[in-house]
Design a protein that fits this description.
disordered C terminus; alpha/beta; globular; 8-stranded parallel β-sheet
Length: about 350
């Protein structure tokens, strides 16, 4: 297991693959930017990854406690993250850093448990990035086991079910904002109930709904997969929900890639995780699914080239139009991105729910 960035680079370099289908346009709808001691992922680092062989037209930033304001009212401090990312996006939009438009869409954090008072925070986010701000993620990942780390927002077990949270959530639709749900698989019923309670608000399910594979969930993959499959099928019946396909190579998922002496190849990733992708696509349809990198978090397990090669291998049997939907168009539609290099859409007949 690599302990620092240089060791991580050397570890990842042990597996080198050429990018498959390098002309296939991609929008990466989920990545982070931060500059922590011993861990830096800023514009140079993401451009390094998006320029490594795949044709990434644009990306969407998702909140990660980065560059909050140091002072001012506590609820307003997360707006600093949007200000920071909008500056990075402006740098990228200059064209001086390659073809990828980094952070063409921005998803920030606001404490929806503030209830109606959160609207002021939401308005401030929009004002900070009026051309790019698209939604809110308020992570709800909670598990009673001390072996499972709860979400960075330190949520209570019942966040998505609480009345105050839902009062704040109700403010999203009027401002044209989507919601990103990030929790663990035992909490999927709460996401299903939330989607049914707010059928006119777009909900994006992050990271397959968080199937756990560590702590009390270790060694129970087949059992948990069966539970997860049923929950995904039920959630797919809510037409306001779209699914991100990725973020399943984190330590919490229990595959243990980061503990190996060398990282996995794309074939190994496919063999271990393909069923999660195919089941979700089967239930939601390509028009409500989008591949995501979750970088640099998933970089603990594999390189950017290897990850997107795995996605392309999983999608190998899909039609050209279905691939366009999965790799680019769903993300462009959900986050309302205007791209100059889109390829024409064809007729779709695969929407479910």
């Amino acid at each position: 297991m690599a302990n620092n960035e240089q060791e991580r680079d050397a570890w990842l370099a042990q597996v080198s693959e050429a990018a498959l289908e390098p002309e296939l346009p991609i929008v990466d709808p989920h990545h982070h930017l931060w500059d922590h001691p011993g861990s830096r992922y800023m514009l140079d680092e993401i451009v390094r990854d998006t320029s490594s062989g795949h044709r990434v037209l644009a990306t969407v930033f998702v909140e990660c406690l980065s560059m909050y304001r140091a002072d001012g009212p506590e609820p307003m401090r997360p707006v600093g993250e949007t200000e920071f990312v909008n500056g990075i996006a402006a740098q990228s939009a200059s064209g001086q850093y390659g073809q990828t438009r980094v952070a063409a869409g921005i998803v920030g954090f606001a404490d929806l448990a503030l209830g109606a008072a959160v609207e002021e925070v939401l308005q401030a986010h929009i004002a900070a990035a009026p051309a790019r701000f698209r939604g809110i993620r308020h992570a709800g990942g909670f598990d009673a086991s001390p072996e499972v780390r709860n979400s960075h927002t330190n949520p209570p077990a019942d966040l998505y079910e609480s009345a105050r949270f839902r009062e704040g959530f109700a403010r999203l639709r009027g401002l044209g904002l989507s919601f990103e749900a990030w929790q663990y698989h035992p909490q999927m019923p709460a996401v299903i109930d939330l989607a049914r309670a707010f059928p006119d608000t777009t909900i994006v399910l992050d990271h397959f709904g968080g199937p756990l594979g560590i702590g009390p969930y270790e060694g129970r993959r087949a059992e948990i997969f069966g539970q997860w499959k049923k929950a995904i099928a039920e959630l797919a019946r809510c037409p306001n929900v779209v699914a991100k396909l990725g973020g399943i190579n984190m330590p919490v998922n229990g595959f243990g890639w980061h503990r190996r002496p060398s990282p996995p190849s794309s074939d190994e990733l496919v063999a271990a995780t393909r069923d999660y992708y195919l089941h979700t696509i089967d239930q939601f349809g390509p028009r409500r699914c989008m591949f995501e990198s979750n970088f640099p978090v998933d970089r603990v397990s594999c390189s950017y080239v290897v990850l997107w090669n795995a996605f392309k291998k999983i999608a190998a049997s899909f039609t050209r139009d279905e691939k366009t939907q999965l790799f680019q168009r769903t993300a462009s539609e959900v986050y309302r991105l205007t791209l100059t290099s889109e390829i024409p859409s064809q007729a779709h007949g695969d929407r479910k729910g």
